[in-house]
């Protein structure tokens, strides 16, 4: 049977050229006036996926 990619994970997680999983940081959607510029600059960067969650996410992305 053909495996299907989980669409929610596909939009949120990117696979790098070396095969690592990256995600964007949270906290950039609303209530932004109370957050400092430094905090917002740091949130622009992508973050690595926790090793404990990586296996679970790879099962949801079978062809990446």
Note the beta-strand portion.
15-25%
Give the total of domains: 1
Identify the CATH architecture.
Irregular
Rounded to the nearest angstrom, the radius of gyration is 15 Å
Query: What's the total number of strands?
Result: 3
| Helix run count | 3
Q: What topology does this entry show?
A:
Elements: H1 7-12, E1 13-15, E2 21-24, H2 37-43, E3 46-48, H3 51-60
Antiparallel strand pairs: 1-2, 2-3
Key features?
Factor Xa Inhibitor, elongated, 64 residues, 36% helix, single chain
Structure description:
By secondary structure, the chain is α+β, with helices and mostly antiparallel strands. It has a single domain, classed as Factor Xa Inhibitor. It is 36% helix and 16% strand. It contains three helices and three strands. The protein has a three-stranded antiparallel sheet. Strand 1 and strand 2 form a beta hairpin. The protein is elongated. The model has no long low-confidence stretch (mean pLDDT 95).
Q: What would a concise description of this structure say?
A:
This protein is an alpha+beta fold. It has helices at residues 7-12, 37-43, 51-60, and strands at residues 13-15, 21-24, 46-48.
């Amino acid at each position: 049977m053909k495996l299907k990619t989980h669409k929610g994970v596909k939009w949120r997680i990117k696979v790098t050229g070396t095969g690592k999983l990256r995600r964007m940081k949270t906290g950039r959607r609303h209530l932004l006036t109370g957050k400092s510029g430094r905090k917002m600059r740091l949130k622009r960067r992508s973050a690595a996926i926790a090793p404990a969650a990586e296996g679970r996410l790879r099962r949801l992305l079978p062809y990446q």
